Each structure stands twice: as structure tokens, then as C-alpha cells.
Amino acid sequence: MSKLDDIKNPVENELKEFEPFFRDAVKSKISLLDVVTKYIIKRKGKQMRPMFVFLSAKMLGEVNQSSYRAAALIELMHTATLIHDDVVDDSHMRRGVFSINALWKNKIAVLVGDFLLSKGMLIALENKEYELLEIVSKAVREMSEGELMQIEKARKLDIKEDVYFEIIRKKTAVLIASCMATGGKSAGLDNEQVSKLWQIGELAGIAFQIKDDLFDYQKTNLTGKPTGNDIKERKLTLPLIYALNQSSKSEQKHILSLLKKKKKTDKIISEISNFAKQKGGLEYTEKTMLEYKEKSLRLLDEFSDNEAKTSLQELINYSVTRKK
């Protein structure tokens, strides 16, 4: 049994029941759409987002139909944004499997994303879940802003630490924040407690994204070289931002000139990665990640103890200790 299986134990039945619920949510009479949505369902990953929703609901009340709708709404909206991202990035793989645009081309991928967005809105509107829709719509708006902000800054390569944190807050953290907030709202919490859950999720989400950014400098390919996907995409993340801040003007100029190169060889990626390590960028990033995780857990500790809360604590810890 994996660590994640232990964590999901308090909501294991709810997660099983969610699968047919989500399948029904994406059903269509158009056979092409059905084929694509079946492919999407088949490659669903660790169920971390529904886990955050159900554990938040169960920590403070009961998982109910509103909780299932909250989880479905987040999955539909998030999956739609991922499909659109793959089109924007011209990416043919996602988590080791073919993306929708790789198999069905861009036009179908964009339309499937639109379909999922509309299904999410309809689930909320048909069931008068206006507050859930407001929370998730706010998250989708911020995620779009975060992506555009990153594209804008990547062109100029002028990302400072405060801008980096604003980008990852918008791009990633608000999604986990919306999972916890909608979970709490579905259990009947007042706005003050829902707001606190949003804050906990945001802090945990920042730690989660910092972990992803660390992976880029720690993971290696078959030849033992750093994968450097962020470096290839000219993304300035915390390890490199910190390292540049510890450097002379000439060092900064040299590293930024390497980062600007369109074609980056293994040698260039290794040089940038080693620079980040030697300047203490990885140590600083790890320390910062743990600080955000601890802030999140301290806020979570203000809620009463129960099995679901313990699992939420473990899930937040897992987000910074995971191996992929």
C-alpha cells in the first residue's frame, strides 16, 4: 500500500463513488466527445484534488452531494485548462502519456476544453451551487492571469522573488485553495472558515509548486544530466532567481545569455543547474518550501482533531516529500 493510499483512507469510499459521478458529468451524445472524455478519465492520476475536497468536507462535517459537485466542478475546470495549456504550449505529452492535441489535433482539443468548462458551469448552475461556482471561477481567473504573467516575464527574464511567488500563487496554489474552500463550503461552513481553508490551501499549493520547481534541478535523464525543462522554456524559478541574486553582474549576464539561447544543449543545462546549486539556490528553495508547508500546517491546526484532519496534514506533508 502506498503512502497516498493510507492518506485517502478516511475518504476511500467517497473517492470510489466519485468515479461514476464524474463519468456521468462528462457524458455526451456526440460519439467523438465520448471517445475523448473516456481517454481523459482513463488517464486520471492520483486524485489529489478530489482528496483535498473530500477531506476538507469531512474534517468539518459530512461529504454530501454538494461535495461531489464541488470535486466534479474543480476536475472539469482544471482538466479544461490543462487541455488548453497543452495547445498553447504545443505540448504532445502530459505526465508520460499523449496529450489530447497530440492525438486529436488542436481544433478538437480546444473544443473539448470548452465542452468541459461548460459542463462544470452547468453542474453548478443546475444545482444552484452559486457559491461553489464563484470560488472555482475565481481560481480559474487567477490561473489564467498567472500563466500570462509568466509568459510576459519569461520574455524579459526579469522575474524577482516577489513576482515568482505571485506567479506560482496564481498558477498553482489557488487550485488547491479552491479544493479546500469548496470542500468546506459544501459542508456548510461560514465564509470566515472557508476563507481560512482557502489560505491553508494557498500556502500548501505554493509549497507544492516549489517542490515541482526543485525537481527540475534534481531529476536527471538517462544520461544522468539534469532534465532542465524549465531552463529549456526560459522559466526563471526560485533556485535560479536566488542564485542570480547572490552573483556578480558579469555572472548574471553570462547565465542570462545562456538562458536566452533558443537551443539549449545538455552542456548549457548542466552549467545553469550547477550554477544554481553552487550559489545555494537549491538549499534556499528547499528551506523556503518547508516554511510554506509549516505555515499551512499551523493554520490547519486551528481546526479540531479528527481522522480527516490527520489525513489532510499528511497530504500536505506528502506534497513536499513526493518523488514525482
What is the straight-line distance between the termini? 17 Å
Spell out the CATH superfamily: Farnesyl Diphosphate Synthase
List the secondary-structure elements in sequence, H or E. Answer: HHHHHEEHHHHHHHHHH
Helix content: over 70%
Model regions low in confidence, pLDDT < 50 over at least 5 residues: none
| Strand percentage | under 5%
Structural class: mainly alpha
CATH second-level architecture: Orthogonal Bundle
Radius of gyration using CA atoms only: 20 Å
Shape: globular
Number of domains: 1
Would you write up a description of this structure?
This protein is mostly helical and 324 residues long. The protein has a single domain (3-321), classed as Farnesyl Diphosphate Synthase (Orthogonal Bundle), CATH 1.10.600. Helices cover 77% and strands 1% of the residues. It is built from 15 helices and two strands. It has a two-stranded antiparallel ribbon with strand order 1-2. 41% of the residues are buried. The model has no long low-confidence stretch (mean pLDDT 90).
Descriptive labels:
two-stranded antiparallel sheet, 15 helices, globular, Farnesyl Diphosphate Synthase, 324 residues, 77% helix, mainly alpha
